[in-house]
Amino acid sequence: MTAVAIWRALGGSDARRRSLWGCFLGFAIALWTKTEIVRIGLNNSSITDASILLKHYSAGAAILAIMYYIVAVYGQYPADGEMARAVKVSRFIQHAAAKTALSAFALMTVLFFAIVDRSKPSDRFVSDHAGQWGATAYMTVFYIYLGSASAICLYQWAGAWRREERRVLRVGLGMMAFAMVLGVTYSFGRMLVMWYWLAVQPSHAIAYDIDAGTEAMQQLLFVFFALGVSVPATEKGLRRARAWLALARLYPMWHELMTAFPNTPMETPRSRREELTRRDLDAGLQLDRWVHDLADAIEKLRHYVPDGLMTAAQEAAGQHHKTNQGAVAQAYWMKAALAAKKQGVTAGPVAAYEQQQATDQDSEVAWLRHVADAYRKADTTQAQRLLATAGAIS
Known about the structure:
Strand content: under 5%
Order of helices and strands: HHHHHHHHHHHHHHH
Distance between the termini: 70 Å
């Protein structure tokens, strides 16, 4: 939670990112208060059981941040059709969340200092105060607040999970919804148990086991929530990584063609290191530019070769390569056409050329990566043979 909070703090300043940062920061603080050193240190301080109050303050603030996150995500959709109910809930949250949280915090503070038995420090607050009405009243306020907020989150994320068609986001929403199922079960389950203990005093061993068991449920909640929220960002990171790898593979071919046609790219080609470490341009956008640059360069190369060059390239590719023959043929054609231009062949009519038909950018990039691999392996001697075969040179 601490690592994700730091990551989120560096990720931007829009409403969604601020809300998620506040959520993870609050949960991180709450979890640190559970560690032995922090817990014992605070509980034995001048404010007995201070770790409990700090934990509930920080967890409550995290829940409030989740409420604002829900508003940021769902509150901006048009209030019509299937989304209307989710929008209404979000707007209700926007009006009630802050006031409800402040009221809960105020009441918890009063109860903590006024009626909770803090005559001696506790290590496990719930089990150590089993059967005590003051602690039960205090925890009831917190659990109602926590459980109600979890139920609202469950409603929103379960609905979004049903509507979402993208598999990765659906997985993330499913994890978040399951985390809130655990949150609702944990909150109201513990509250009911504490009220039951008012009527039937449990042994310390039974109380401790129930406390520890439900605590494990809460730990699992944090894991699923952190993973679920991080899935969309992970998907975006994977897309960037794939784009960067594609740029690295395409660079030699792209750079050579852009050097031959310097007016084609929007900017003067830079070194490999500079192009692959750019911070001013998203990798996906940069890849999209390169794809268009390569297509434009190929169109220009068609003016320097005869129609027969593509047939010659296809025959050469078929002789040596049984897989990806089309990509290899295109690479051979490009290598030979570029060699013809460098030799000073006068530009003429557009030559015949067979271009792979791609259904989307991903398939087009995948095709170009195969072409780039074959282009890197092709040599100038082979290019000259193809030009001679096609009658481009004598």
